[in-house]
Amino acid sequence: MSEKKTFYITTPIYYPSAKLHIGHAYCTVMADTMTRYKRMQGYETYFLTGSDEHGQKLQRAAQEKGLKPIEYIDPIVESFKSLWKRLYISNDDFIRTTEERHMKVVQDIFKKVYEKGDIYKSQYEGYYCTPCETFFTERQLVDGKNCPDCGRATELVKEESYFFKMSKYQDRLLKHIEDNPDFIQPVSRRNEMINFIKQGLEDLCISRTTFDWGIPVPIDDKHVIYVWFDALTNYISALGYGTDDDSLYQKFWPADIHLVGKDIARFHSIIWPCILMAADVPLPKQVFGHGWVLLDGGKMSKSKGNVVDPNVLLDKYGVDAIRYFLLREIITGNDGIYSEEALVKRINTDLANDFGNLVSRSVAMVDKYFGGIIPEAGQATELDEELKELALATAPKAAEAFDKLAFSEALSTIWQLVGRANKYIDETAPWVLAKDESQKERLGTVLYNLLEVIRIATVLASPAMPLLSGKVSEQIGMDLTNAAWCDGEVWGLTKAGAKVAKKDAIFPRIDPKSLDLPAETKAEVKEEKKEVAKQETKAEITYDDFAKLDLRVAEVLACEKVPDADKLLKFTLKVGEETRTVLSGIAEFYNDPQSLVGKKLVLVANLKPKKIRGIESHGMLLTAAADDDSLLEVLQVYSDVPSGSNVC
Ligand code: ME8
Question: Which CATH number applies to 543-634?
Fold first, then answer.
């Protein structure tokens, strides 16, 4: 018999510096959905999450409260665990980096790499961002002092340190990334990382002496191990790597997916693989860097205090609605915007109207016309065949999307089926059929088909919504709670003769008036704006008009915020042999302008230069923006087409 296929997925281990927000929940919900999906497909899955408990940031946070680090951390870690429970996160393990089982493995790996000659002692002088727990060189700082990732002030650090010879692994890593196109995803992040490596990897400082909240360096207890070296190792320490019982490691490593936010993709796709290469451990199969959940154009952050507490949303809207919203609203890999209006809109439209009504109408009709007993399906008409065909095409299409973590696409595919079934009700008009006794069989067929679509949609959506199958099962007289993915691939599993049960709405509608919002809700304003935008169709042009535009591929050499101009980003672009400065009013959508460096964008190159804030801007970058301005993205070219190439 062949061995069962395995699937190992991880989330970042979060810092217990404050309670988690909806951005963290987003990542963990994605990983959970992926795990449930793979489990339904018959994989033996392992899903790891945890907490990253060492480092200067946590030591200081505890000091400020007059507590020992562990006293400060323990209750926060409990709040993580309780949030994951409420979100029905089905993790197999929760690793804390203060646990003995982890600390021992970190020390063993440090020792192994040291003995190999890849760790040496030297003097460190450079800058440190404590909130990000990251070292920077002066050259990397913004305005000579601030962290290029979070913008906060860095501290000058001078201390004796151990260094990891990361530079030694640069070429091997680059080759690995080039030979394995899926190793870093999505492609935009892969390109960023390739660019970063090509600029040259420096040896990494991996120990600190100026505080003591960390794992002692095994060969020198004056030092504690750098928190990222410590944290990244969780992905194998949790599997018992290097211990007497390493059966989990043998079974599940290398990980299939390290799911992480784009801000920490660099640690996972550069530092971590180099450590693993040095320790002779195989590399993970994929690092997927997802986008951020933004609030009104800005990133939520624990330190800014502008966070949305998932617990409050769970109390108000329930787990399936929150999970559905996050997965459906945000395109994995891109940033997405959270707003309560958008959440309520999704609940009312997709869940209450589309899905909920399909269930309640269908069940009510079986109840009314067949005494609650599911009828047999008779002869299929062309319309029935069309519905069945769409239903059968849904599982493979949704699977293709789930496989690439395209959750929004997967759910949208399933909801197309739901929408088609609602239309089928209108087309077949069961209430008319019910008036004619000779149409009884036809009526039965229609209702059977509806229940069958409900069954299939429920099975396929259940990785995203863990309570859905239980709620639907109660109503359609069939237990779907342990359904396998293949149950959603076939037509006809609904059992005629079973009894339906009318219950409360699966997704109750939310009255938008109950939201604590101004009378004229933002959602309505956005809707109006959209209408206006739609009406603004521009006059027809000839090809000659279009050909007047000189569109070129432009590579971003540098990108930074223009001081005192909230909206402006200043780009230094390479257009063929030429270097240009271009200003673009998109700063609010790119919190981390640095992340655009290395990307190839599309430039209107023959636009007359214009002075803005004393800077001459020569050209305009093309962007795609939602009609209501809630989202914007610069257009990019992902292939190796060189800068300066024509775009037409
Ligand atoms: O970085 N939207 O921990 P962390 C989406 N301990 N994701 C967000 C987000 C947002 N608004 N804000 C934060 C650490 N995140 C390290 C990880 S792993 C070996 C060590 C994501 O608590 C962020 O992108 O600061 C990151 O992936 C994760 O939360 C953890 O953040």
Answer: 2.40.50.140
CA of 261 from ligand 1 middle (Å) equals 6
Question: What are the residues whose beta carbons fall under 8 Å from the beta carbon of 188, sequence distance 6 or more?
Answer: 333, 599, 636, 638
Q: Taking the mean position of all CA atoms in its chain, how far away is CA 61?
A: 28
Which amino acid would we find at residue 238? A
Fold of 339-488: Isoleucyl-tRNA Synthetase; Domain 1 (1.10.730)
Q: Round to whole Å and give the CA distance between 536 and 466.
A: 43
Query: From ligand 1's centre to the CA of 74, what distance in Å?
Result: 19
Counting atoms of ligand 1 from 1, which one is nearest the CA of 17?
22
Ligand 1 atom 4: residue of nearest CA? 14
pLDDT in tens, 431-485: 999 999 999 999 999 999 999 999 999 999 999 999 999 999 999 999 999 999 9
Q: How far is the CA of 14 from the centre of ligand 1 (A)?
A: 6
Output the CA 169–ligand 1 centroid distance in Å.
Answer: 26
Full 3-state SS string of 458-506? HHHHCCCCCCHHHHHHHHHCCCCCCCCHHHHCCCCCCCCCCECCCCCCC
Task: State the burial class of residue 545 (Cβ atoms within 10 Å of its Cβ: 0-12, 13-18, 19+).
Answer: exposed
Measured from the CB, is residue 15 less than 6 Å from ligand 1? yes
Spell out the domain ranges in the chain: 339-488, 543-634
- Our answer on whether the CB atom of 355 is closer than 6 Å to any ligand 1 atom is no
Cα–Cα dist 250/241, whole Å: 8
Query: Which of 246-255, 317-326, 376-385, 575-584 comes out lowest in average pLDDT?
Result: 575-584
Q: Where is 537: in which H helix or E strand?
A: none
The yes-or-no verdict on residue 84 having pLDDT over 70 is: yes
**Alpha carbons 336 and 253: distance in angstroms, whole number:** 32
Q: How far is CA 500 from CA 200, 368, 439, 447, 508, in A?
A: 65, 11, 21, 12, 20
Give me the mean pLDDT over the 641-647 stretch. 91
Residue 384 near ligand 1, beta carbon < 6 Å: no
Find the mean pLDDT for residues 79-107: 98
What share of the chain has pLDDT > 70, as a percent? 94
Mutate which of 9, 14, 295, 308 to test ligand 1's pocket (most atoms within 8 Å of Cβ)? Answer: 14
Residue nearest to atom 12 of ligand 1 (CA): 23
Ligand 1 atom nearest 235 alpha carbon: 19
Ligand 1 centroid distance, CA of 24 (Å)? 6
Q: Do domains 339-488 and 543-634 have the same CATH topology?
A: no
Are 87 and 33 in contact, with CB atoms under 8 Å apart?
no
According to DSSP, the residues that pair with 601 across neighbouring strands are: 554, 636
SS3 percent helix, strand, coil of the chain, rounded to 5, is 45, 20, 35
Distance CA 621, CA 636 (A): 10
pLDDT above 50 (res 525): no
- Is residue 230 in contact with ligand 1, taking CB distance under 6 Å? no
214 Cα–ligand 1 center, Å: 20
How much is the pLDDT for 522?
A: 35
The pTM for the full model equals 0.80
Sign of the C-alpha dihedral computed for residues 450, 455, 461 and 462 taken in this order: positive
Judge if the beta carbon of residue 52 lies within 6 A of ligand 1: yes
- Beta strand segments in 195-325, E: 204-205, 207-208, 216-217, 220-225, 257-261, 287-290, 293-295, 298-299
Q: What's the whole-number average pLDDT of the chain?
A: 92
